[in-house]
Specification:
By secondary structure, this protein is α/β, with parallel strands linked by helices. The protein is built from seven helices and eight strands; from the N terminus they run E-E-H-E-E-E-H-E-H-E-H-E-H-H-H. Strand 6 (about 95-105), helix 3 (about 110-125) and strand 7 form a beta-alpha-beta unit. Bound molecules: guanosine-5'-triphosphate (GTP) and magnesium ion.
């Protein structure tokens, strides 16, 4: 987090982490598609010719608070290919929260575990305290055959302290729910550390609603809480 009182600016950094091809870039593409153009920057992707992330993807989302603070939420993805570990470590620097995107298929379990360990290692290398930087877990690709059952995912949820969300990122299922969970976790940790509510008057409710009122929540679990805006000009 960067909090600049003189400029009245707050920057929050979220990192999408996980094995190669788990769907990290797809998550950002879906968020980009569903976010109003006036509150987001362009989706920056640095990819190889076969669409693998080479350095990172970045999607900035911004808003102003009632108190006149400019808030910028920067969503990054890391490159999942094994050879890019040094890049993963660099992109992870200064993260305020992490969305760990796992592949739900049974044959991906070992890979998920190895990248979970890799995340913990790289957090340590960056002096990020795992107690201070919350992680949300997404089990993606629920549309494919031979995935973990809902009951198994429920088991994982019960065993750990992290929120766990099922997703089919290519259809936008679970993507906004994951974003909501990771932003909420980030806010709570930052508020406890830096007193966002006390010091700059930014409550959790304002933080989340300023993002999600500008996101098309149609058909997601967030639809009731943040009803999609009606298209302008519609009767
Ligand atoms: N069937 C299915 N395919 C998915 C899903 N989400 C992503 N994919 C596909 O999986 C492939 C990899 O997705 P990416 O988002 O590029 O994966 P990544 O995690 O960014 O991969 P790296 O950049 O190499 O780390 C693409 O062909 C996606 O279309 C999903 O929910 N279901
Ligand atoms: Mg990618």
């Amino acid at each position: 987090m960067q909090l600049n009182h003189a400029q009245r600016e707050l920057t929050v950094k979220i990192v999408y982490y996980g094995p190669g091809l788990s769907g990290k870039t797809t998550n950002l593409q879906m968020i980009h598609q569903r976010t109003q153009p006036d509150v987001r920057g362009r989706l920056l992707t640095v990819e190889t010719h076969d669409d693998r992330t080479l350095f990172f993807d970045l999607l900035p989302v911004f808003f102003s608070t009632a108190n006149g603070f400019k808030v910028k939420v920067k969503l990054f993805t890391v490159p999942g290919q094994v050879i890019h570990n040094a890049t993963r470590r660099i992109v992870l620097q200064g993260a305020d929260a992490v969305a760990f995107i796992a592949d739900s298929r049974r044959n991906a379990a070992a890979e998920n575990n190895s990248y979970w360990k890799n995340l913990m290692e790289n957090m340590r290398e960056n002096a990020l305290d795992t107690a201070q930087v919350p992680v949300v877990i997404q089990f993606n690709k629920r549309d494919l055959p031979d995935t973990k059952t809902d009951a198994e995912i429920e088991e994982t949820r019960k065993k750990g302290k992290e929120p766990v969300i099922g997703a089919i990122a290519i259809r936008g299922v679970g993507v906004l729910e994951t974003l909501h969970a990771v932003l909420q976790s980030a806010y709570r940790t930052l508020d406890a550390r830096a007193g966002l509510s006390k010091n700059i008057g930014l409550t959790e409710k304002e933080f989340l609603s300023q993002v999600f009122v500008n996101v098309d929540t149609t058909g997601t679990e967030l639809e009731k809480q943040f009803p999609p805006k009606k298209p302008t000009g519609a009767a």
